[in-house]
Amino acid sequence: MSRRCDLTGKTAQTGHKVSHSNRKTKRRFLPNLCNVTLTSEALGKVVRLRISANALKSIDHRGGLDAFLLKAREDELSPKAAELRRALVKKRVAVAAAG
After folding, report:
1. CATH number for region 13-98
2. CA distances to 2, 74, 89 from 21, in Å
3. pLDDT tens digits for 52-85?
């Protein structure tokens, strides 16, 4: 399983661990990933995603999973999240056409 956020695309970064004597050794900075279950109100689905804590905070700030997905760019999303976004857009178009 890759260490990548499904919604924001955050991945592991590399850098240096710097000691007191200023000696630098390679290290990895891993994203704070959480397994969460989120609900899409528009689709009426429950979705399990592996997202960063920062993405979870952003979802709450934007007003839910649907609002976050509609504002997100599709190239940042994982294939699972991108499919969910396409279904959400399709549902919105159908609702707008119906009335």
Report:
1. 2.30.170.40
2. 34, 45, 55
3. 999 999 999 999 999 999 999 999 899 999 999 9
